[in-house]
């Protein structure tokens, strides 16, 4: 029997439309506002990951370095990490360093931070916030993060990221107000005076199409997580050493649970029932030579690498009896977060 291509395509379309009277009807959600976002309820606790920038040097060429950072970024958002700290484990002091210029060590740190921030930013804001740069040359190779705040133009959501505009260039903008580009067909109006070029988090008050501008309110980036439990991306900061990671917490009382990872740590299965409740957890990973080498290189610490575990509340090995000589940091990141996920959700306050 000959297959009628036109009739076959027509019948297939009718099947997917789900015509009335058909028993085997396939229901397809074709709504433009279909957002695959899961909320577990308001979440106050935070998860922070610390990684040495030196792991980028283990990749050859800009393409592979870019892919490595992309793998790290994907791991961060899969497990809802709120803050990532890139620290310098080289032991070079600020006086010796040429940070911000072209020395090799600090180029690794700045490259890592630059790419992580770029990937976390919604696509519609990247052109405004990130000028053309060599670091971003191969970002087209990366898989998108597709976080809840990476919204499409026609998606409705209570919160949205935007960038402030120069309101003097637009007509009929009320005094002491600011226009924001939030990736929508119309601009957003907030009742605050904010300098142009600032990234803001918006609470969308209404989305009526009857007005020239959409009304919204500027809120803290943590509000979507704290009020509705939506993961809202990660922040990135730099620490000049391992000790700076521990001391320079953005939280008022610092991190109340600090976990170090090492192949010489205690097997995770032995201590997983002994993890305390926490508000802000910090999980620290070492580079090619491990956390012990980072402790040895830190000039502000009075202990050696053989006593590294004294810096942490828990010193764990998430993959005992490993079948290879070493586990790469980006691999250890996925293994550790997968092991800790259920405990973090249970013990976080």
Written description of the protein model:
The chain is of the alpha/beta class. Helix content is 28%, strand content 18%. It contains nine helices and eleven strands. It has helices at residues 5-17, 61-78, 104-120, 123-129, 223-228, 242-247, 268-271, 291-297, 329-347; strands spanning 46-52, 83-87, 159-164, 178-181, 188-190, 199-204, 214-219, 235-239, 257-267, 280-284, 314-317. The protein has a six-stranded parallel β-sheet. β1 (46-52), α2 (61-78) and β2 (83-87) form a beta-alpha-beta unit. α2 crosses α3 (104-120) and α2 runs parallel beside α9 (329-347). Residues 5-34 have low confidence and may be disordered. Belongs to the class IV-like SAM-binding methyltransferase superfamily. This is RNA methyltransferase. InterPro entries: Alpha/beta_knot_MTases (IPR029028), NA-bd_OB-fold (IPR012340), Put_MeTrfase-C9orf114-like (IPR003750), tRNA_m1G_MTases_N (IPR029026).
């Amino acid at each position: 029997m000959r297959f009628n291509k036109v009739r076959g395509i027509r019948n297939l379309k009718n099947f997917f439309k789900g015509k009335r009277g058909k028993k085997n009807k396939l229901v397809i959600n074709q709504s433009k506002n279909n957002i695959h976002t899961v909320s577990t309820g308001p979440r106050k606790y935070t998860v922070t990951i610390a990684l040495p920038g030196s792991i980028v040097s283990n990749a050859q060429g800009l393409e592979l370095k870019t892919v490595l950072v992309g793998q790290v970024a994907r791991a961060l958002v899969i497990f809802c990490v709120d803050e990532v700290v890139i620290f310098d484990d080289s032991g070079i002091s600020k006086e010796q360093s040429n940070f911000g210029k072209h020395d090799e060590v600090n180029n690794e740190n700045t490259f890592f931070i630059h790419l992580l921030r770029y990937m976390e930013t919604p696509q519609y804001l990247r052109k405004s916030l990130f000028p053309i740069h060599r670091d971003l040359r191969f970002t087209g190779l990366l898989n998108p993060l597709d976080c809840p705040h990476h919204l499409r133009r026609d998606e409705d959501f209570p919160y949205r990221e935007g960038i402030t505009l120069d309101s003097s260039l637009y007509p009929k903008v009320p005094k002491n107000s600011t226009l924001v580009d939030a990736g929508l067909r119309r601009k957003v109006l907030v009742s605050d005076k904010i300098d142009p070029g600032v990234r803001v988090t918006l609470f969308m008050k209404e989305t009526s199409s009857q007005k020239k501008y959409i009304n919204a309110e500027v809120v803290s980036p943590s509000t979507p997580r704290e009020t509705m439990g939506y993961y809202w991306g990660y922040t990135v900061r730099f620490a000049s050493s391992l000790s700076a990671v521990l001391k320079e917490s953005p939280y008022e009382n610092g991190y109340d649970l600090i976990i170090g990872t090492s192949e010489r740590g205690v097997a995770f299965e032995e201590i997983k029932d002994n993890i305390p409740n926490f508000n802000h957890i910090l999980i620290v990973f070492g580079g090619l030579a491990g956390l012990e080498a980072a402790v040895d290189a830190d000039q502000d610490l009075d202990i050696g690498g053989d006593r590294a575990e004294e810096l942490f509340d828990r010193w764990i090995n998430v993959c005992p009896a490993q079948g290879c000589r070493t586990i790469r940091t980006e691999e250890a990141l996925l293994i550790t977060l997968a092991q800790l996920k259920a405990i973090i959700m249970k013990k976080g306050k």
